[in-house]
Amino acid sequence: MTVQRSTLPLLRRPGDHPIVWTMLVACFLPVSGRAESTAQDGASVTTLAPVVVTSTHVEQPAFDVPASVDVIDGELMRDSQMQVNLSESLGGVPGLLVQNRQNYAQDLQMSIRGFGSRSTFGVRGIRLYVDGIPATMPDGQGQTSNIDIASIDRVEVLRGPFSALYGNSSGGVVQIFTEEGSGPLRITPSFTAGSDNQRRYGLKAGGAMEGGGLDYLLSVNRYTTDGYRDHSAARKNLANAKLGLPVGDGGKLTLVLNSVDVKADDPQGLTYDEFIDSPRSAAPNALRFNTRKTVKQTQGGLAYEHRIDARHDLQLMAYYGQRKTVQYQSIPVDTQAAPGHAGGVIDLGRDYGGADLRWTSRLALMGGSLTLIGGVAYDTLTEDRRGYENFAGSQLGVRGNLRRKEVNELWNIDPYLQASWQFAPRWTLDAGLRYSTVHFDSDDRYITAGNGDDSGSARYTKALPMAALRYQPTGDLSLYATVGRGFETPTFNEISYRSDHLPGLNFALRPSVNTSVEIGAKARLAGGLLTAALFQTRTEDEIVAAENLGGRTTYRNAGRTRRNGFELSWSGEVARNWQAQFAYTWLDATYRDSFYAGAAAPANLVPAGNRIPGIARQSLFASLGWMPPAGWRAGVEGRYLSKIYVNDSNDESAPAYFTAALHAGYLWKLPNWKINAFARVDNILDKRYAGSAIINANGGRYYEPAPGRNWTAGLSASYQF
Question: Is the pTM of this model over 0.85?
Answer without folding.
Answer: yes
